[in-house]
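Schema walk-through. Below, the input block comes first and the output block second. Nothing else is stored per chain. Lengths vary across the set, and this one has 175 residues.
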Amino acid sequence: MAILKHSNEGNGSATLSQSNRVMHVPRGSGAAYWGPGELMTFLITGKETDGAFFLAEVSVVPGGGKPPHVHHREDESFHILEGTLTMRVGEDTITASAGDFAFLPRGIPHSFRNAGDSQARALVLTTPGGLEGFFTEVFEPAMDRSATPPSSSKELIGRALAAVPRYGLELLPPA
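--- output ---
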């Protein structure tokens, strides 16, 4: 559902652009995708922000997370809502718990994992937008958001390896 805010451009007619568009995403209504050990729900995409940013809520089951990788185009920020994520950033390890924030500049190798016993949830912001295209290409649409996230598969890995060059990503060997 989108609430549109119109502006007048001096000629008396209402016009609409991305810069004056108000968005409302009710809980559980954003497009959702299953990745290995996680559910990613899109809150607002780069297309909806004129490329400025992409924001998603990520729910990570115990043992789930992302392997080491590098974003060459985007900065990535995490605001932990629930649980704890252990992040490996360059040579450092960050343990981020509910209420914590972490900013990861582009070009730095990083990974994250839920090493806890309960689900972790985070708002993940990438700037600029566009990375959501990677997730729509690689992850599976989540028809049942209450299901258990899948584990990695050869098909998913193949899609990821094919997509990374188009999105300025680099996958790294496990640390």
